[in-house]
């Protein structure tokens, strides 16, 4: 039998992540013997060994690693289905739009204003998140639609519409010598010994190698720049969160960034469709967004 129960998957994921039956049982709030029996029954039903057990502890087999990956996806999908079902059953619920805090501020403001003028428009709740979190919010059903950024964000599996293309700027401490420049190149910003580029987590949560500090929130990054500890290269419109202690200098050869509106392909929400149509009209008819390559006066 190929059917798997969500309970079995939750049990297996807990053991696979903890690599310890006792800790997994505590995490699940159950006793260890029934957990061990459940994993054994799961292995017999699948006909493969998922875990190697020995005196040194527990280790995943190749089959176990596959099930851990697939189980996580399946459990996320079940949770997302439950959230979307509950939300669909509430006719008064707002549309949830996820966006990275500080990013695409002018575009987001225009979109919200334009959509509010649409006949029959529903309220929009803006979910401001940290870097790279929009895709997860869409997949697990906490958001209906999101503004994401190519090539940096995860767009795999979503329906999308491109909205805006822009250049990038280096955010520097105002007192740094490079802050007086009219423009920079990527080679120049990568070669500043006293000001290493901040490192954001990759999609898998790991950090790229380098001397710069590991950051995961905008507020953390903003303070590190103000303290003269790091610099970063970001889309020009993300300067919305720029502090007085910062200066933005255009990086002329940085790759362009495209702001994209994304939504799950399974969505049947008329409100999502209406918001996407509104965004496309805004892209085609509105004046250019003022995020171009000009360093602000200081």
From TrEMBL:
Residues 4-61 form the HTH lysR-type domain. InterPro entries: LysR_HTH_N (IPR000847), LysR_subst-bd (IPR005119), WH-like_DNA-bd_sf (IPR036388), WH_DNA-bd_sf (IPR036390). Gene3D superfamilies: Periplasmic binding protein-like II, Winged helix-like DNA-binding domain superfamily/Winged helix DNA-binding domain. The keyword ATP-binding does not apply. Keywords: DNA-binding, Transcription, Transcription regulation. The keyword Transcription regulation applies. Belongs to the LysR transcriptional regulatory family. This is LysR family transcriptional regulator. It comes from Microbispora triticiradicis. The lineage of its organism: Bacteria, Bacillati, Actinomycetota, Actinomycetes, Streptosporangiales.
């Amino acid at each position: 039998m190929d059917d798997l129960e969500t309970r079995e998957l939750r049990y297996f994921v807990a053991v696979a992540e903890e690599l310890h039956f006792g800790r997994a049982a505590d995490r699940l709030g159950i006793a260890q013997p029934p957990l061990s029996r459940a994993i054994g029954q799961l292995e017999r039903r699948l006909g493969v060994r998922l875990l190697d057990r020995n005196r040194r502890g527990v280790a995943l087999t190749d089959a176990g690693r596959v099930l851990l990956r697939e189980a996580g996806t399946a459990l996320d999908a079940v949770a997302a289905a439950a959230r979307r079902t509950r939300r669909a059953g509430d006719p008064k619920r707002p549309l949830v739009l996820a966006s990275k805090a500080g990013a695409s501020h002018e575009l987001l403001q225009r979109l919200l204003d334009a959509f509010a003028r649409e006949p029959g428009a529903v309220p929009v709740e803006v979910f401001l998140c940290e870097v790279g979190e929009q895709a997860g919010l869409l997949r697990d059903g906490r958001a209906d639609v999101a503004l994401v950024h190519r090539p940096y964000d995860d767009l795999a599996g979503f329906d999308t519409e491109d909205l805006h293309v822009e250049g990038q700027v280096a955010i520097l401490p105002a007192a740094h010598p490079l802050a007086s420049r009219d423009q920079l190149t990527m080679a120049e910003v990568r070669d500043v010994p006293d000001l290493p580029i901040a490192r954001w987590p990759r999609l898998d949560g790991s950090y790229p190698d380098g001397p710069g500090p590991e950051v995961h929130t905008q507020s953390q990054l903003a303070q590190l720049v103000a303290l003269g500890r790091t610099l970063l290269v970001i889309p020009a419109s993300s300067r919305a969160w720029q502090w007085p202690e910062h200066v933005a200098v255009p990086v002329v050869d940085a790759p362009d960034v495209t702001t994209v509106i994304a939504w799950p392909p399974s969505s049947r929400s008329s409100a999502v469709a209406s918001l996407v149509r509104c965004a496309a009209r805004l892209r085609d008819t509105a004046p250019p967004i003022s995020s171009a390559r000009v360093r602000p006066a200081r």
